[in-house]
């Protein structure tokens, strides 16, 4: 065995193999040492009110960063007083909260708390101070009659600069980013607009009335259903980006081919 | 072929009549080159480097391997071509693999592979198997023979006589005149560099906001005026002055065309609200209204409209070249190529409680220019 390895240690692929093995080992070590996701959450049904149940969950899962009374911790976590139930529903039901670790921006991941627990947390946080409530279903789903053209104009003026004109998302500063919008539930989109999660500004009902929100959601959903003809869509980023890809990848390949042609055979 | 290992015993399998003997490399140079080297200190021609044989030239096994490689490339190319035809008929045009249209991908990959392998096979053939011995071919003399030169001169003179270019002065004059004038269009076209834009670069629709006649700020899609109580902390509104459309102050801009686009691109603003204590500085004293701030939306670098606003850091990021402005600090540039802040509008509210701009911009919006006041 050792002889087998010794003979092949200068093989051209040996370096890649060692690198791959190292990465696998590191990944396994991290997975076994990182905080696990299946910590049990309190699911007591004995508490009489959702607020009480939410408070229990909050103390276990959220208070270490957001403070025992949701007042926040400077430089670590914002205050939750006045963020409202909608913000909790947005952050928790998309799995952004609880955070796995401190990072530039909370990422979407499988949800940690189930629907009932999320509702309890939302009820508790809403009791800390007045804030946007969870939107009504007839609001965020009632967009079938909305004005698609108006939705398009509003989207391009208000959303497209960060989320891209086709809702493909885009980068911000310092590792922050605007996520892609495809496949996001109407309720989540609505809650994001009224609460302004992470870096996103607030588009409250005063500056963006509910019927305009419906128009925007209709536009996003129409975009999502529009088939993407052709090969790789590259996030529908348009001909400029496709051209850029073509130039960089194509030129790279051409350069590699030119080098290969030019190198003298041995 | 002094570099061949003698112990190998295998002579080069092919020899070309013109191959260069390294011992005599450089001997084909004209005699004057030595004089050149001497008189000007020029670098002497080093001649050809000794020829090194490729493995396929000396090792029959390597030669067979190279032959197999080339054959395999051509063969795989043929297979890929067949694959293209099969994919065209067999893959349904609505199938998708990894979110990619499967038929387009299959057609592209098979045709690409087929074409690439023909080329790659040809290159491999040339590199590994075709002769690679250096050959020197001396340049032929450039000068024509004296007879040919004399004949050319005679032909030219004969043509000149026959055409009457020297004799028919009217034709000659008119031709020279026409040729002289043909340069004029190029000069006239320079006029399109103008006219001088005058004050257009410093003019926006906000200029109507004179003392006592403030302009309301309206949403730039719906043209509804803004009320401070509707704007929560963290809000961003893309806005435009009310005289752009939909109010009695409407200043008669056409509803489509370049004039409207120009007016909009000069006058677009963003309105943001933050807690008043978060505002560190402004371009004028009390130009905010209870934490509501209004800035030009046009980047001062090359004029992209920007509203990538991160409401927690109050950073406004231009997507074109990453200029970043801090809106809580008078919209000063904190990163990127922009050279000056975004101009700010002084805000207030009117009798009916709508948000207004009290004055026009104090400086030109958009990219900087030489005559900017």
Give the beta-strand count of chain B: 12
Strand order, sheet with most strands of chain B: 6-5-4-3-12-11
- Distance from N terminus to C terminus of chain A (CA atoms, Å) equals 32 Å
- Largest sheet of chain A, if any? 2 strands, antiparallel
What is the approximate shape of chain B?
extended
Q: Segments of chain B where pLDDT lies below 50 for 5+ residues?
A: 1-20, 22-29
What is the chain-wise order of helices and strands of chain A? HHHHHHHHHEEHHH
Low-confidence stretches of chain A: 36-47
Tell me the CATH architecture of the largest domain in chain B.
Answer: 3-layer Sandwich
Task: Describe this entry's structure for a reader.
The complex is a heterodimer of chains A (266) and B (373). Among the domains of chain A are: 42-128, Cytochrome c-like domain (Cytochrome Bc1 Complex, Chain D, domain 2, Orthogonal Bundle), CATH 1.10.760; 137-226, Cytochrome Bc1 Complex, Chain D, domain 2 (Orthogonal Bundle). Helices cover 50% and strands 2% of the residues of chain A. Chain A has helices at 2-8, 14-33, 50-61, 63-66, 84-93, 115-126, 137-140, 148-158, 160-163, 186-195, 210-225, 239-262; strands spanning 170-171, 177-178. In chain A, strands 1-2 form a two-stranded antiparallel ribbon. Chain B has helices spanning 32-40, 55-58, 60-90, 102-128, 146-163, 169-181, 184-189, 258-267; strands at residues 96-97, 100-101, 215-219, 236-241, 269-273, 292-296, 308-310, 315-317, 324-326, 332-335, 347-349, 355-357. In chain B, helix 3 runs antiparallel to helix 4. The model of chain B is unreliable at 1-20 and 22-29 (pLDDT under 50). Classes of the chains: A mainly alpha (266), B alpha+beta (373). The A-B interface holds A 78, 150, 153-154, 157-158, 161-162, 170, 172-173, 176, 196, 198-207, 212, 228-233, 260-261, 264-266 and B 54-56, 99-101, 104-105, 108, 123, 127-128, 132, 219-222, 226-227, 229-238, 272, 305-313, 315, 317, 319, 322, 324, 335.
